[in-house]
Every structure is written in structure tokens, then in C-alpha cells.
């Protein structure tokens, strides 16, 4: 295993696998969050299930955190090693978007996204851990009703916070626009599939971040619904 990570191909494959995992997680996360636009009850029920199910909490959640950390650490390692090897960044050398701003600055968009993830953890994950495992309240209730929906809406009251979310998801979209195709190329996808993958990647990198932005802006504009 150590030899796998020491090779350039091994590191790129590991980076691609962690990218696939995180892209899949984004779809699951969006599927839960988007229910808040049309059903407070359904969002509360799904949030309570995700927040109390042992498989999610003690198996999938640790894997997710590891995946996030691994992806960004591996990204920095690839960037540094390729710069050291030939003075050209991994992102600039990888994929078909050699001249794009995005491909040349994957490391910076990644840093902003990482900062956003930390903010997201501070906003939601750490308070949840406090309520459930320190205060010992697994009910998910406050004043006789589920608290998840109201806690989320409250976070989007601040225009500065919503602005930070919008900027972060725009950068996530740019990051995905290059990273989606690059991940498949690292796994050995053929040149014949390149155009199709680019089209799917473009749709994914626009639609997923846009829907997250819609959720944040909607709740900001409708704080009392």
C-alpha cells in the first residue's frame, strides 16, 4: 500500500476515488436539503434519521470526514510533488482544460472550499454533537417540535453568511468543472468517452452547486415560513 501512494499514478487514482466519494455525498446531502423547500416535516424527519441512525453516525460519518481530509491532503501532496518535479502544477498538467483558470488554480479553489466545510461543521455538525452526545438529547425536539428546519433557516438570516455560501458554491462548481473529468481520466477512461464525460461533468458542476445556492437564498428571503 505504501508503494501505491508513492507512485504518481497511485496518488492520482487515490485522489480520483476520494473525489467520486465526495461527489456522491454531495448528491445525498442535496437530496435531503432540497426537501426543505417544499416540506418542513419531511426535512425534519430525514434530518432526524440521518442524525440518529447508528450506521450513518458511526460508520458513514467518520468515512466522510476521512474522505474530506484525505482528498484535500492528497491534493496538496500532488500539487507540491508536481511543482517540485517540473515546476508545473498537477492541475495544469491534468485533463483537457490546460489553459483554463480553473485548472491552474485548483489548489486555491480547494482551500476556499475547505474553509467553507470548516464553517459548515461549526454551524451544524459541532452543535449537533454537543446536543446529542454532551447534553444527551437524542430526541431532535425543541419546544415540542423538531428543531432541524428552524435551526437551518436561522443560519441563513445573515446576508454575509449567505454570501459566503454563494461564493463557496460558485468556487465548488468551478472546482468540479475540472475535477469531474480529471477524476475519470485518472481512472483510465478512454479518449472516446471524454466528450460525454465533459458534458456530464459540466451539468453536474452547474446543477449541484446551483441548487445548494437556491436553498440558501430561498431560506434567506423566506425566514418566517
UniProtKB/TrEMBL annotation:
Highest taxon, organism lineage: Bacteria
Record has Transmembrane as a keyword: yes
Keyword Translocase: no
Organism: Hyunsoonleella rubra
Transmembrane segments: 12-38, 58-80, 101-122, 162-184, 204-221
Keywords recorded for this protein, A-Z: Membrane, Transmembrane, Transmembrane helix
Protein name as annotated: Succinate dehydrogenase cytochrome b subunit
UniProt cross-references to InterPro entries, sorted A to Z: Cytochrome_b-558, SQR/QFR_C/D
Amino acid at each position: 500500500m505504501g508503494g501505491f501512494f508513492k507512485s504518481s499514478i497511485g496518488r492520482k487514482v487515490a485522489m480520483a476515488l476520494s473525489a467520486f466519494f465526495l461527489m456522491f455525498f454531495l448528491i445525498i446531502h442535496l437530496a435531503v436539503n432540497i426537501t426543505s423547500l417544499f416540506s418542513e416535516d419531511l426535512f425534519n424527519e430525514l434530518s432526524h434519521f440521518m442524525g440518529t441512525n447508528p450506521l450513518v453516525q458511526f460508520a458513514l460519518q467518520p468515512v466522510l470526514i476521512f474522505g474530506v481530509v484525505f482528498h484535500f491532503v492528497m491534493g496538496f501532496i500532488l500539487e507540491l510533488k508536481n511543482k517540485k518535479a517540473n515546476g508545473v502544477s498537477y492541475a495544469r498538467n491534468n485533463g483537457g482544460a490546460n489553459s483554463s483558470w480553473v485548472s491552474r488554480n485548483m489548489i486555491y479553489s480547494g482551500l476556499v472550499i475547505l474553509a467553507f466545510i470548516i464553517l459548515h461543521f461549526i454551524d451544524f455538525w459541532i452543535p449537533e454533537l454537543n446536543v446529542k452526545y454532551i447534553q444527551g438529547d437524542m430526541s431532535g425536539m425543541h419546544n415540542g417540535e423538531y428543531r432541524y428546519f428552524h435551526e437551518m433557516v436561522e443560519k441563513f438570516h445573515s446576508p454575509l453568511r449567505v454570501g459566503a455560501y454563494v461564493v463557496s458554491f460558485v468556487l465548488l462548481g468551478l472546482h468540479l468543472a475540472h475535477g469531474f473529468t480529471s477524476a475519470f481520466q485518472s481512472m483510465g477512461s478512454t479518449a472516446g468517452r471524454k466528450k460525454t464525460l465533459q458534458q456530464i461533468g459540466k451539468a453536474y458542476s452547474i446543477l449541484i452547486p446551483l441548487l445548494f445556492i437556491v436553498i440558501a437564498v430561498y431560506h434567506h428571503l423566506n425566514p418566517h415560513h
